Amino acid sequence: MSEGVDRLLQLALEKGALKYGDFTLTSGKKSTYYFDGRLLSLDPEGAYLISQCLLPVLRQAGAEAVGGLTLGADPIVASIALASYIEETPIPAFIVRKEAKSHGTGQGVEGPLKAGSKVAIIDDTCTTGGSLFQAIEAAEGVGCTVVKVVAVLDRQEGGGEELRRRGYDFIALMEADAEGKIQVATGFR
Predict the structure, then answer these.
(1) What fold characterizes domain 2-188?
(2) What is the model's pTM?
(3) Gyration radius of the chain over CA positions
(4) What is the C-alpha separation between 168 and 75, in angstroms, rounded?
(5) Rounded distance, CA 175 to CA 184, Å?
(6) Distance (Å, whole) CA 15 – CA 26
(7) Distance between CA 125 and CA 151 in Å, rounded?
(8) Predicted confidence (pLDDT) per residue in 20-55, tens digit
(9) How confident is the model at residue 1 (pLDDT cuts 50, 70, 90)?
(10) Residue range 67-78: average pLDDT?
């Protein structure tokens, strides 16, 4: 598994997924670097590597579905669902809307998610954990149990610690230090 994360880190550098400058993050925090996870999750090799690194983790956790907040999680959960089907151990995907639809059925969660399912929540990046918490709340709101929470990159700015403090089993494939140096996360070395 660590070989896959090593290659994913190399690919992140090759694809320019790490940028330096002055950025405002989704959380509202300012940062001197930006990690564009979509440059990995929408890349064919990146999507493959992410799914191959995470499938064993999700299976071990007993996840029966995988989902997260749109947009960061969309390509990740789709690649995991596809890879799990190819390996003949299907794990369906679901997507949490930022706001429930105001028309049709008014759903906040899209996909074949069943109440009572054990689920994993995924996002490309964790800073404060806001997007992950929003997806957790939506999944729990429809009667699911969150058995794993995952980020491709943990910015190490408090979100991961808060998830753990609240009792969630959180891991990341990669982690960053304050200067934006990204490395394979401790759990995957």
Answers:
(1) Rossmann fold (3.40.50)
(2) 0.94
(3) 16
(4) 23
(5) 6
(6) 22
(7) 5
(8) 889 998 888 889 888 999 999 999 999 999 999 999
(9) low
(10) 97
The span from the CA of 172 to the CA of 150, in Å, is 5
Q: Which residue has 């995957």 as its token pair?
A: 188
Distance CA 171, CA 83 (A): 20
DSSP character string of the chain: -HHHHHHHHHHHHHTT-EEEEEEE-TTS-EEEEEE-THHHHTSHHHHHHHHHHHHHHHHHHT-SEEEEETTTSHHHHHHHHHHHHHTT----EEEE-SS--SSTT--SEESS--TT-EEEEEEEEESSSHHHHHHHHHHHHTT-EEEEEEEEEE--SSHHHHHHHTT--EEEEEEE-TT--EEE-GGG-
Cα–Cα separations (whole angstroms), residue 120 to 29, 98, 131:
26, 18, 14
Please give the Cα distance from 82 to 78 (Å, whole number): 6
Distance CA 7, CA 10 (A): 5
Pairing relation of β-strands 170-176 and 145-154? parallel
Closest CA to 150 of 52, 76, 82: 76
Whats the size of the chain, residue-wise?
189
Q: Do residues 30 and 1 touch, judged by C-beta distance below 8 A?
A: no
Pairing mode, if any, of strands 170-176 and 182-184? Answer: antiparallel
